[in-house]
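Need a sequence for this fold. Nothing fancy.
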């Protein structure tokens, strides 16, 4: 990992100052929590277990956590997911995603997964999926039927949704229905409820991403102030008057702090999402050959830089 002193030395010899500065300061991005739609045409193990090098599992039994298996069974029943002949439960510490949850996999007599559920520490459903093939000969649902089925499934599983949901045809067949989370009238970046309704009309998977939120700031920067602060931050990084860039529009969102521009935060515990101005900065000229866009997260209260992204 580059230090601030390393970056300053590099900047002295960098022709495209802002591009070099941003590429060097970004470092490895902190992993974000991602909920993927599971479909039966993917290998069950790959679908059930997100790719990470830091997934630690500890087997649990009904004696360890008596409520886990019963809550998982209840969630499957609510969603009409299949039961197996045996259940395997583990507590997962996924340090790559900075989350912990209990996972129950239902297996058939041959040891193949037929369904999966993930529950958080409160017993709330994070994700559930089935891995059997769609039944043949059943009439495919239309858009309205899929939306109704998805909404009923989410409600049965104890997941609240907001608004009508956005329905789109899934590449694997069937429909995906997504509800974006909105708090205080402002979208929570990446948080959603997603339900996949298969082509045979049954729910294939359901899951949610739902981060804790910090308190609203007592005062709020204007959009113009946020854009001006983003420009000032970029100029401080570049240290090169010849480097040009344009500051795009700013959007007010709930976002998660990350380590994009602060290496000391790599591996830190996930923090509550904060109300922030998300500002896109686009390098111009030579700088654009190394970095296409820089995304800055500026706290909406005090303007501090809490994270972002670099698009190369």
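Here you go.
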């Amino acid at each position: 990992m580059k230090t601030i002193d390393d970056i300053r030395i590099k900047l002295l010899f960098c022709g495209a100052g802002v591009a070099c500065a941003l590429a060097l300061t970004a470092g490895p991005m902190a992993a974000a929590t991602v909920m993927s739609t599971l479909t039966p045409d993917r290998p069950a193990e790959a679908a059930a277990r997100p790719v990470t090098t830091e997934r630690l599992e500890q087997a649990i039994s009904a004696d360890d956590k008596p409520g886990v298996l019963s809550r998982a069974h209840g969630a499957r029943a609510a969603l009409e997911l299949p039961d197996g002949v045996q259940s395997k439960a583990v507590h997962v510490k996924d340090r790559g995603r900075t989350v912990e949850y209990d996972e129950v996999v239902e297996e058939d007599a041959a040891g193949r997964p037929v369904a999966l559920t993930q529950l958080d520490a409160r017993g709330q459903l994070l994700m559930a999926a089935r891995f059997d093939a769609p039944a043949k000969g059943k009439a495919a649902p239309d858009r309205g039927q899929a939306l109704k089925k998805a909404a009923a499934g989410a409600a049965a599983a104890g997941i609240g949704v907001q608004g009508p949901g956005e329905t789109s045809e899934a590449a694997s067949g069937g429909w995906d229905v997504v509800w974006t989370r909105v708090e205080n009238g402002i979208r929570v970046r990446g948080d959603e409820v997603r339900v996949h309704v298969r082509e045979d009309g049954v729910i294939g998977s359901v899951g949610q991403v739902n981060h804790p939120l910090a308190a609203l700031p007592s005062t709020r920067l204007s959009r113009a102030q946020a854009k001006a602060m983003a420009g000032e931050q970029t100029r401080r990084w570049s240290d090169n008057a010849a480097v040009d860039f344009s500051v795009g529009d700013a959007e007010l969102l709930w976002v998660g702090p990350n380590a994009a521009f602060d290496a000391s935060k790599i591996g830190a515990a996930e923090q509550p999402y904060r109300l922030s101005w998300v500002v896109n900065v686009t390098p111009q000229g030579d700088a654009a050959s190394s970095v296409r866009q820089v995304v800055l997260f500026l706290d909406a209260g005090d303007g501090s830089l809490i994270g972002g992204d670099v698009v190369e």
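For context: The two ends are 18 Å apart (CA to CA).
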